Amino acid sequence: MFERLGRALAFPLAAMPALVAAWFCLRIAEAVHASGAGVAQSSLFGAGLGNDLLSLGRFAFVFLVGALPLAFIPSHRWRTAALGLLWSVLLLAHAALLQYHWVSGVPLGADLFAYSASEVGATVAGGWTLSPMLGVAVMAALASLWALLSMSVRDWWFRPGARAGYAALAVSLCAFALLPQRFAPAVARTDADVDYLLNKTAFFVDSNLAHLHGAGAAAPRTEAQTPWSGQDPRYPFVHVDRTPDTLGPLMNTRPGAPPPKLVFIIVEGLGRSFSGPNARLGSFTPFLDELAGRSLYFENFLAGQGRTFGVLTTVFGSLPFGENGLAALGDKLPRHASLLSILKSQDYRLRFYSGSNLEFDNEGIFLRRQGVDSLVSEKDFGPPYGRSNDWGYADRDLMEVASEREARVPAGPAVTIVQTTSMHSPFTFPGKEAWLRRVDERMAGLKLPDSPVYRNGRDIFASILYTDDALRLFFERAAKLPDYGNTIFIVTGDHRLPELPMDTRIERYHVPLIVYSPMLKAPLSVKAISSQFDIAPSLLAYLANNHGLKTPKEVTWIGTGLDTEPSFRNLHVIPLKQTKTEMSDFVSGTAYLAQGRLYTVGDGMQLDPNTDAGALARAQAQFRDFLEANGTAGRSTALLPQGDARLAGYGGERTLRGTALAANAGDLGVGKLRRIADTKEVAFEATFTNHGVDTSPAFVPLLVVANEHGLELNETAAPVRTLAPGETVTIVLRPDVRKAAPGSYFVSVLPSHPDTGRPLGVGQYHVETRL
Prior knowledge:
By secondary structure, this protein is α+β, with helices and mostly antiparallel strands. The chain is 36% helix and 17% strand. It is built from 20 helices and 25 strands. Strands 2, 3, 4, 5, 6, 7, 8, 9 and 10 form a nine-stranded mixed sheet that branches. It has a five-stranded antiparallel sheet with strand order 13-14-15-16-17. A four-stranded antiparallel sheet has the order 22-21-24-25, with no helix packed on it. A hairpin with a 2-residue loop joins strand 15 and strand 16 (597-602). Helix 1 runs antiparallel to helix 7. The protein is globular.
């Protein structure tokens, strides 16, 4: 019996080369697709193939045991055919996971549990275009599989015995238990690199197994200081509201003026890497750039989520996420207070506009719970408007409908929310051909180099230009409304769209925030980090302090208020949830914890590896504290005790109060960097400041010049020095770039460790200059 069982286990082992060859065909297709997104195949193809083989080894026991029922088929020919059918289904499933990744921008994992079947279908259908390359790859994979299997029927290349079957089963089980799920070489810098390396089927299985077994559940409470007090374990986010009014000093508020109208525009996929000054990919939002130039503009701003599921709860409620996004709880959404419900109780009218399905991500349930008076979605559109894709109606149609309806509503305090969708796959909208031509014009105007990012992403960049122009229309019409002079506009992205390649993981959350109002005293560009969690607390503090509105004495805000400091710093603790089921990112001061790794965040959301064990431990403790509190909130019926949402007069503090942060490397940093024009040689002037209360550690002022590919051309340093508390020094650095060909280059300046060269504080990174 044991001999027969061993031979049954060994049967699929003999056919395994056929599956390897078929999987190789799909890896080639994935490599071709990824190279178009800037993933360097010369250094990563082997690693990707290695992950495929690692995955096959880890899950070989599934193939071996799963084929045991085939042993009851007496004919070897029919047994092999049955095995081929099973493996063909596996290959088709793997191809479907590849297509999902190409459409959504992220591999499919435990999201399967977080979205309904209709929502997953809408995500895929909304951007489904069958890739001819993937179709060819699937046919090649199936042909390879069946050709090699047919060869095994005629003449097995080897005939493993029972011992080989048992040995293979044992080795595979050990590999599954002991080996890592995947590996990524150091050259894998971006999310696109890491996602490419994954075997999508293995990732799907590992992610769902972890979800089913509760991996990632909150660890026991560790003492950690956070912005929320958590005195009552039943209501861990409840704390006394002390949000400062950071917006009031920047506004011309007339005594006795009526409360202003608030207009929120949440732009699907809007990211800083292609919008605003010094955008890494060049800015494709000329109108928003112009608007930012006369606004309060936050350069280093973070969304709370990597997908749309959490944007409403984050922006309007500063709420935790629960397990899969708080709105995913639907009718079981815990009782809470939000900016919307608080203003609704004080005679504000609430209106929401979208050209899409209001029930996706349970947005409609959340908005109705806040008391929104008017909900406009795809079902409210009609002629002359037509659907642009499966997501609904295009952004220009949305702006026209919203503008027309806003012009007809009665006067009075109101909150208007407009949520766009056109910057989402499949990136289709009316007049697309004309906007594709404008992409070429914009690239020429920005003098952008020809690269696969722009060649393969023309549809995406066209949609960005299209949405930006739709926003221009909305603002032009809003300027004609009688309450325009008493309106505050808030523009942000729900997350950064994933289809364009990202340099770093945090880029997924890096979105702009534009606060524009005719009441604004002067434009201001802000480098201090804030997040969408800070929007609701700050607006309510402004309204309470300047217009006499009431605010709750106790709140459940995660945010502590918008920081309007022009120079770079971070006084916030910010949890970040990439997908409904993945939460492994956390920012505390300048410490960024990402999937267990620690980085230092600098201006422009540049990241440097951080080896500070103390900062890592503090960040992990704070993150564990949040995870436990977040889990409690997701299981509760209320986030605060019944009757504790009592409204009172403004009681905020004078300045933004920071909490104990995991790391505050911002004590020592580069505040300004400029090219000296009146010199015969290339020279840069950098200002180093010690913002701390102690003397800075010894550091080397370091300047690095690199080309567009990150290749270092020159490194120049000034003598080692220290700075007294509050001291500022200006240092001139002269790199030797005489051998550099004329063109665009990038300069970085940072305070570095005299021995290791690692950053000791916050630098200025990737500043473009012409040589």
